[in-house]
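Feature request disguised as a bug: please show the residue count (255) next to FCD domain-containing protein in the output. Example input:
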Amino acid sequence: MTSHRGGARSEKVALIVARGIVQDIDRRGLTVGDRLPAERAMLEAYGVGRGTLREALRFLELQNVLSLKPGPGGGPTIEKPDSSALANAMLLLLQFENAPFATVAETRGGIEPLLARLAASRMSDESLSALAESVDRMAVHLDDRAVFLETNKEFHNGVAWATENALFGFLINAMLDIFDGTVVGVDYNERRRQAVLKAHRRILDALLLRDSDASEAAMAEHIEEYARYMARKYPEALARPITWDIGWRNGQLLG
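Example output, currently without the count:
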């Protein structure tokens, strides 16, 4: 166990073990679906007690690195982490800063136009095709609230990941995982859905041309239009403080 001068707390042994497990996963070339060694072998390998090992495994489960399956044939199985742990951390940080919902809208306005610019020059034909399919599906099922929410999220995620920058992808994933505007009283009526669809088509058209300037401008217009709509119709929602429990209400951030 490592210690630090100046009275800082020693690093928890379980966290050190968790890091060692992740390093060994990488070193051994293990991937999603592979199982870790039996508990007895891991206790010997890491030189810790059963309680410490289980705490380390539980920590990795909470980070979506592992799933712990009980019973015969079970044990720690490797999973692919997603953005949910980042979203939870962001929610907690924002709650303790008493940050309002407007924080998310403002952040999107600063980031997503840049992502559209980068995507225009980087995204693959396959990514463009998937984005076009998402827009078409939104158009066909515009009266279906669930499909509208799903395809809206697909579109913004698609642009973020098309930058080929994983940090941007996870960041947008996390922001989209935080909220469903309906949780804070926002209603997306037919007129608003039509406006979102029209904006997505403008952005898609610019991306298909691989026009960085036009893609950035179209995304900026889209996010600014959303911010104006929220300020006009739902100022109380924008002012509402962010709380951790919002992330547990099956939400998506709309734009």
